[in-house]
Fold this sequence. Notes:
Blueprint: H1 2-21, H2 26-37, H3 57-76, H4 128-148, H5 152-181, H6 188-209, H7 214-237, H8 239-265, H9 276-281, H10 290-316
Helix pairs in contact: 4-8, 5-6, 5-7, 5-8, 7-8, 8-10
Bound molecules: fe (ii) ion (2 copies).
One fe (ii) ion (FE2) binds next to α8 and α10.
Amino acid sequence: MNSLLARSVMKRAIAGRHVSSSAATPFYAAAAAVEQGRGLSVVVMGWRRMTSGAAEPAVAEKDKKSNGTVAEEMRKGDVVVSSYWGVSKPKITREDGTEWPWNCFMPWEAYRADLSIDLGKHHVPKTFLDKVAYRTVKLLRIPTDVFFQRRYGCRAMMLETVAAVPGMVGGMLLHLRSLRKFQQSGGWIKALLEEAENERMHLMTMVELVQPKWYERLLVLTVQGVFFNAFFVLYLMSPKLAHRVVGYLEEEAIHSYTEFLKDIENGSIQNVPAPAIAIDYWRLPKDATLKDVITVIRADEAHHRDVNHFASDIHFQGKELREAPAPVGYH
Ligand SMILES: [Fe+2]
Ligand SMILES: [Fe+2]
């Protein structure tokens, strides 16, 4: 009798837990509403957990059916996904009603690049640390120029593998600091991780255009191993120097992409159609070309330049990043 009672209590407890987990669903409705506000018609369905049969039999039946359909659909694809966890693929569409093809980013992460940004802005090195940062970046450019020369496709692809590291390291270290100090980050964790993600999307675009050779992949492995650790130590020791270095690296990136555009304009590099991922990420027109893609990437680099010089300036004033408003969503 006691064991029956215990089992009954256990069942009720489990049912209760499932019911409460369904509270996660309004988030997706809210996400869809936000997108409508931005002028995007995005339909988001799914990403909901199964509800308990005891609490909502009609909903549970519906979910069971839809999960069955999803499981069936997934079986048709390349990946067999377990339905055990009750996680189903959301149905997301573009403005024109066509299916959103990407899992790596969502429509609410796509944006139109701000092309009005000043590309020629330069932070004149004044202090000793500024000069160290500037000289370091200029020195790093020499082997890059020697190795790649005017092969701007390869050069951009390789450099993006490096460019996506600082934001991740900075964001990670600020995250850990926030945990240790029980302090808000002022939005800087998000801002730096957004930069890392944006750089990674540059890379995802470039690999659609240039296929890396085996020795280039080997070089990426080596450079990442060295650069990640070096930047990690540098950020721990002097975040103001680390951000200044990134600011100057971004100035160099703007220069490289300007040269890339010159080669497209003079015909040395073919102005091929833009990759599909780039059209969706930067909300480019369907007939966009490589020139349009490089133009928006260059604008992104100019934004990264400003964010990093700004961050370094905050440190130079003897303040912490969290004391100044973080440029979240700054593209
Ligand atoms: Fe980049
Ligand atoms: Fe950048």
